[in-house]
C-alpha cells in the first residue's frame, strides 16, 4: 500500500533544520548565524513548528534556550534524520560535480598559526571550488562534533579511540619558561625538579592538563597551578611575563620572551586525522587525502 506524508509532516520537514540547529546550539542568535538567516526568520520558523505540533519546544534559560520535554523527545527522534539528509544531499551534489562541495573541517588550537593554514592554502589552490567550513576547538569538543556529524574531518591531539583515525605525526611537549627564569639556561630538566614551581595550565577537562597532572604525579608531586586558561597563546604570554611555567607543544611562531626545554620521560602526543562513521563525499575524501599525503611537510614529527 502506498504511503503518503501527512499534512503535519509535510509542514514540519522544512522546519527541522532550524529546530536541529537551535537545539544543538542552545542559542537563537548563534543558530541563526550558522544557518545564515536573520534571527527573526529563525524565530518564526521555530514558532511555526511549535504551532504545527501544538507544544512548546524551547524555554528561555538566561540568554540562551533549552529544550522542553517535548523538544528533547523530538530532537532525539529527528537529529539523525536531519544529518542523514544533509549527508545525502552533499553526496549527490558531490557525485554530480566532484570538484565542488562543502567540507566541515576542525582542527586544534595548537596548529592554528602555521601548519593547518598552510595545508588548507595549498588545498584551495588545487581545489578552489570546494568550500570549507572551519572550526577550531580543543580535542573533546572536536571529537563530539565529528561523532554527531557536525564535522566531516578533524585533526585532533590525541585522536579518540572510537573514530576512524589516520596518524599524521607526533607533537613533542616541552617545558616553557621565561628567559629570566633560573632554568632558562638548561637544555634538559627532570619533572621532579619542578615540584616548587607555579604552573600555568589549561583547564582540567583538557587532555594536556590531564597529562600534566599524570606526569607530575609520576614524578612524585601535584602541580601547583596558579593560572588556568584554555588559550595556549595566552599561556605563553603569561609565562613570558614570568608568572609561571608551562608544559606545552613548541609554538608555531617564535616567542622571543620564552625558552623551551626538553623534559625526559614526557611522552609525545599523537596527531591524528579523525573521520566520522558516515560515508564521505568526494570533496571530503579529497581533503582527507590531501592532508594525509602532505601533513609531514607541515606538521612537526
UniProtKB/TrEMBL annotation:
Record domain HTH lysR-type: where: 15-68
Protein origin, superkingdom: Bacteria
Single annotated GO MF: DNA-binding transcription factor activity
Classification via Pfam families: HTH_1, LysR_substrate
Alphabetical list of PROSITE patterns matching this protein: HTH_LYSR
Record's GO cellular component terms: protein-DNA complex
Keywords linked to the UniProt accession: Activator, DNA-binding, Transcription, Transcription regulation
Protein family according to the UniProt entry: Belongs to the LysR transcriptional regulatory family.
Protein's name in the database: DNA-binding transcriptional regulator, LysR family
Top-level taxonomy: Bacteria, Bacillati, Actinomycetota, Actinomycetes, Mycobacteriales
